[in-house]
Amino acid sequence: MASIFASLPPPLLVPARKSHPRNFPTFPVSLPSGRQNHVSFVAKASGESSESSTTLTVFKSVQNVWDKPEDRLGLIGLGFAAIAALWASTNLIAAIDKLPLIPTTLELIGIFYSVWFTYRYLIFKPDREELFQILNKSASDILGQ
Fold it and tell me: Are 43 and 19 in contact (CB under 8 A)?
């Protein structure tokens, strides 16, 4: 399998300029066989962050609780309780999975609920906005904001 090695010209930081979409800068590319080709590429930066504000708020809340020495024990206990609940729920699911006919019934219920949820909240834009409002309200209620 041949690999391509790109050699960029010396100023690596090219000042931003407005160019026509068909007028991309080209950079030489050396192939192992010695031939030279030119490759065009465009890099764009967006102003949007990839992380949601809710995620940052949760991390800030946990960090604020961790900074208080009297709340560390409670946070550690909450983490231990979450791990114990995860362990118990996996054992419960494994026990239910061994019963005859119940796994198939629960699987059908899950499929029907997934189809209903997709139709109700994900297909149309106003319904998606309603779902985001419900999720943001629930997150703010949980975090006490």
Answer: no
**CA–CA distance, 40 with 25 (Å, rounded to integer):** 6
For 63, residues 6+ apart whose C-beta sits below 8 A from its C-beta are none
**Separation CA 78–CA 56 (nearest Å):** 20
pLDDT score recorded for residue 112? 97
Q: Nearest CA to 117 among 106, 105, 136, 130?
A: 130
Higher pLDDT among residues 39 and 127, named by residue? 127
Whole-number Cα distances in Å, 110 to 17, 43, 107, 143: 53, 42, 5, 29
Three-state DSSP state, 37: strand
The pLDDT confidence band at residue 131, using thresholds 50, 70 and 90, is very high
Helices 102-117 and 69-97, axial angle in degrees (round to 10): 120
Q: Which amino acid is at 51?
A: E
| Residue 70 binned pLDDT confidence (cut-offs 50, 70, 90) | confident
pTM: 0.37
